[in-house]
């Protein structure tokens, strides 16, 4: 295939989205016959963004996400391309249940519950998490008419209309807090769980829709599958990670680059349009790069500061609110914990009034994360409307977490060590109307800044597979654009 000459694409931001974009730019450029040099710029001294693994004293500790969804295939496919799919592990099958804190005590989440939506009668009917009135109110979903609402709505309002306030406050809100760290009554349903609207419209009931969806999934699981040529079977688990931690994915992507120049400790100041086409990327150290195409994968508020002043639509990026959170890792000798660690952990409704929002019993959920006789736990603090704790000193955060640990699990022993990780302005909030605003912005950018593209958690997906998927589609857009030029 005839090669086009001399193209340069600059990717700003070395998190999982930026890294994936650079990787797929290489692959697609080679397939399309575009002679492309990729330059990946990262302001920090390491790649990976929130994907950071600490390996200490035999423990495998995640500072950010601990896994990815297996059913979203972008991450699995990338692992296979990189040849590391054989290193994937799933959750401990003996610790797949989860607890919810209710009135100061841990209660098991009913089996068959899907983000607050019951799909099994007896576990829901017998749970102590809801009053009989709350259970009966949830059952009205089976007879309530479907909505005639047009346009986006909040996830909390939708669930409250279908299932009632108790289900939202005691079940759905704490279960979703770990994903979005936000307020359900402000989050956009179409940007978070668009399938709920589809299920209601198709089946007239969220519960009936979930039951039908579960039956379809069961039928698909039981259907004979033709194995992919050369593909290793995956662990039977909803979530997947690596024995050595998620950083294995980051390390493997970086090692796979062939025509990507990685520059760490490199902060971008401004993006300027060049006469005759293309862009100048001005760096904080005073130097500059010339680019035929640019991809910004930084948080939206950072991207807004880099864009040309003439691009008025950049103010829309600042309309996406971000929440600050922190995690606290505590390591113990097993003998110090009397509480039965028979689950993946627990979540905490806002109304319980304690500092932690959720806890992962890491060494129970992921057997590879601690040696025999050791226990690893991780606690989450901070959420929308309650972020002040993130600004407190490490000692104060640890003190409050340990106080909650004592009240919920009776643990009073001193940890072998503790690690506090702050993620300031790290969780974008997809408030009602988010997808419409994203489309409006990207349409204007396509018109006014040809060759500049945007991707990342602030746009259309928080999880690792979503970010990798954005990298694939963004790379495709860049290559199509460069071919036209």
Give a written overview of the molecule.
With 485 residues, the chain is α+β, with helices and mostly antiparallel strands. 36% of the residues lie in helices and 23% in strands. The chain has 16 helices and 22 strands. The strands form six sheets. It has a seven-stranded mixed sheet with strand order 8-7-18-19-20-17-21. Strands 12-2-1-16-22 form a five-stranded parallel sheet. It has a three-stranded antiparallel sheet with strand order 5-11-6. Strand 3 (53-56) and strand 4 form a beta hairpin. Helix 1 (16-32) packs parallel to helix 16, helix 2 crosses helix 16 and helix 5 (155-163) packs antiparallel against helix 6 (165-180). It is globular, with a radius of gyration of 23 Å. It starts with a strand and ends with a helix. 45% of the residues are buried. The model has no long low-confidence stretch (mean pLDDT 94).
Summarize the structure.
Helix content is 36%, strand content 23%. The chain is α+β, with helices and mostly antiparallel strands and 485 residues long.
């Amino acid at each position: 295939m005839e090669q086009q000459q001399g193209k340069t694409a600059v990717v700003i931001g070395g998190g999982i989205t930026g890294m994936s974009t650079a990787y797929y730019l290489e692959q697609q450029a080679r397939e399309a016959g575009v002679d492309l040099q990729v330059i990946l710029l990262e302001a920090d001294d390491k790649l990976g963004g929130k994907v950071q693994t600490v390996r200490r004293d035999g423990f495998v500790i995640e500072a950010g996400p601990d896994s990815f969804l297996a059913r979203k295939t972008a991450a699995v496919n990338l692992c296979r391309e990189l040849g590391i799919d054989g290193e994937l592990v799933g959750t401990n099958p003996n610790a797949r249940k989860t607890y919810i804190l209710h009135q100061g005590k841990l209660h098991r989440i009913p089996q068959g519950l899907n983000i607050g939506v019951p799909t099994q009668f007896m576990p829901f009917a017998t749970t102590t998490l809801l009053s009989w009135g709350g259970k009966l109110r949830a059952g009205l979903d089976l007879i309530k008419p479907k909505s005639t609402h047009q346009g986006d709505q909040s996830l909390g309002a939708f669930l409250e209309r279908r299932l009632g306030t108790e289900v939202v406050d005691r079940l759905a809100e704490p279960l979703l807090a770990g994903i979005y760290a936000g307020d359900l009554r402000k989050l956009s349903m179409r940007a978070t769980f668009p399938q709920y609207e589809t299920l209601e419209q198709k089946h007239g009931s969220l519960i009936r829709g979930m039951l039908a969806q579960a039956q379809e999934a069961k039928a698909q699981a039981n259907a004979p599958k033709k194995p992919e040529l050369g593909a290793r079977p995956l662990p039977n688990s909803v979530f997947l990670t690596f024995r050595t931690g998620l950083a294995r994915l980051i390390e493997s992507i970086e090692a796979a680059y062939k025509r990507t120049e990685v520059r760490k400790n490199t902060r971008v100041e401004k993006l300027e349009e060049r006469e005759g086409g293309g862009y100048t990327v001005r760096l904080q150290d005073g130097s500059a790069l010339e680019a035929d195409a640019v991809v910004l994968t930084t948080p939206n508020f950072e991207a807004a500061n880099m864009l040309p002043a003439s691009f008025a639509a950049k103010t829309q990026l600042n309309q996406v609110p971000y929440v600050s959170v922190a995690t606290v890792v505590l390591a113990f000798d097993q003998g110090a914990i009397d509480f039965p660690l028979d689950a993946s952990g627990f979540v905490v409704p806002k109304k319980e009034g304690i500092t932690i929002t959720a806890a992962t019993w890491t060494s129970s959920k992921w057997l590879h994360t601690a040696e025999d006789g050791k226990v690893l736990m991780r606690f989450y603090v901070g959420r929308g409307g309650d972020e002040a704790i993130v600004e407190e000193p490490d000692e104060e955060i640890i003190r409050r977490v340990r106080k909650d640990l004592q009240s919920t699990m009776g643990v009073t022993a001193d940890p072998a060590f503790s690690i506090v990780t702050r993620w300031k302005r790290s969780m974008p909030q997809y408030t009602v109307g988010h997808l419409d605003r994203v489309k409006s912005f990207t349409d204007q950018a396509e018109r006014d800044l040809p060759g500049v593209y945007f991707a990342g958690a602030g746009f259309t997906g928080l999880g690792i597979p979503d970010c990798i998927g954005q990298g694939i589609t963004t790379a495709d857009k860049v290559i199509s654009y460069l071919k036209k030029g």
